[in-house]
Design goal:
CATH topology: Cytochrome p450
Order of helices and strands: HHEEHHHHHHHHHHHHEEEEHHEEEEH
Distance between the termini: 91 Å
Bound molecules: protoporphyrin IX containing FE, 2-acetamido-2-deoxy-beta-D-glucopyranose
Strand content: 5-15%
CATH architecture: Orthogonal Bundle
Strand order of the largest sheet: 1-2-6-3
Number of strands: 10
Structural class: alpha+beta
CATH class: Mainly Alpha
CATH superfamily: Cytochrome P450
Number of domains: 1
Helix content: 40-55%
Amino acid sequence: GLPFLVKIPALVASFVFLFCLEACLWVRNFRLKRRLPGPFAWPVVGNAMQLGQMPHITFAKLAKKYGNVYQIRLGCSDIVVLNGDRAIREALILHSTEFAGRPNFVSFQAVSGGKSMTFTNYSKQWKMHRKIAQSTIRAFSSANSQTKKAFEQQVVAEATELVEIFLKLSAQGQYFNPAHELTVAAANVICALCFGKRYGHDDVEFRALLQKLDKFGETIGAGSLVDVMPWLQSFPNPVRSMFNNFKDLNQEFFGFVHNKVEEHRDTFDPEVTRDMSDAIIGVIDKVDSDNGLTKGHTEGTVSDLIGAGLDTVSTAIHWILLLLAKHPEIQTKLHELLDKVVGRNRLPSVDDRSSLAYLDAFIYETMRFTSFVPITIPHSTTSDVTIEGLHIPKDTVVFINQWSVNHEPPEGSLDKDLTNNVMIFSAGKRRCIGNQIAKVEIFLFFAILLHQCSFEKSAHEDLSLNCTYGLTLKPLNYKITATLRGELLKAVWSQQSSNLPRLIYLPMC
Ligand code: HEM
Ligand SMILES: *[C@@H]1O[C@H](CO)[C@@H](O)[C@H](O)[C@H]1NC(C)=O
Ligand SMILES: *[C@@H]1O[C@H](CO)[C@@H](O)[C@H](O)[C@H]1NC(C)=O
């Protein structure tokens, strides 16, 4: 009998252990009502080690196994991942309010002096803030034919300058990487709108600032560990240094914006709206209201607009140039179309857009194929909600996998116009407010660069489509050369500045 007696404590211990495990799982299920499907989450790190280099692709693979709505755990956060057109539209459009929140991530609080609209949770004040940002963009880009023209001319001038810079960088058949010049060009468009001022491509300080901002998306992109493993902040490690750099670059960028806005405050004239900064000062600084927005939100709005309009637009053109150089046969077709529709004596304009549908198709296909904003800025649920029959509790972080929508096999006929089905500006209450100006900008840059130049890769470089991951996917370093096609056409800047919109700003109309 002795061997049996020895086994009893071990047996009891095993039972106790199993019972506890069951109890823990039961309590957890109870808390989350019906637990969402998803991969097993390891202690401490959760699924952080499984994300890989390209989390959006991992998420799409997991959707094949667990369905379009599932849960992962990153560090100490449960996160719901939404994939595919149906689930994402059900969430963002049918349940727009429930999915309009943002999580209270520490990295979000470092943006725009904590007064960002983009990185703020859903609230009455946020609604007002977003409305102001939205109507400011409209007032300076599409409110009437005069502002439309002024905006367009500004982009044209920036694009023709870019052509000259590319040609200089290509002197004697040299190859160059266009990334940085594209950032300066996109920054100039939005800075001209915001401050009535553009910067030279050789402005060292401005270039340095933009170079730092380039890293912004790496920390803020979905799957970044800064926000889900707070304990990583307590000892030196790569995540902590990345976060410290992130805080520094936000502080420097916000300082830059703050100085510009202060200059505007000093010279503010309620009768004359010089630019977006004036318009926003006029609404937030000068109008007493009970919406809770304070002076700091003025800078917050301006820095949101500059930040959002910079990386996205330049990354779009960056991909377009890469794909043009990679597919010379398509480039030739586009050249022929431009020469037929526009001719060689003038530059393409927005009015040509309807006759240049193949250009727009190329832009949309670039957006679909690269899905260069693969996952939106993280959302958070503002109340309990059910998607595809699955319960998601209030205050859950939600990743919206736009890439998965653009890489689903198309339903029905392939002839169908797919351009409206590209998801890159998100949808619902948090959808991008700059999509209209982004489309005009990208079209004009693309059309003018292509009308003026041909782009070629070097014979021994096989252009790779690999990229770096972050809020935006950026192509790896590649080199191209530009050759002038025919005569160089210029747009004149001096004529442009007298055309800046001088409108009295009526915010809520
Ligand atoms: C090709 C260019 C662009 C793309 C692909 C793009 C895409 C996006 C995406 C995916 C979001 C996040 C939506 C979400 O969280 O669900 C967003 C938000 C936003 N975008 Fe854009 N964007 C572009 C250009 C611009 C431009 C030019 C501006 C303004 C000048 C702008 C202003 C904003 C703002 C302010 C938000 C925050 C909205 C909010 O949180 O309520 N974007 N954009
Ligand atoms: C966001 O705001 C909603 C109210 O609109 C609130 O219920 C929710 O708890 C907030 N979420 C976070 C993460 O702070
Ligand atoms: C691109 O990615 C593929 C597979 O992901 C890899 O095999 C290849 O080496 C990468 N190319 C470059 C240039 O990094």
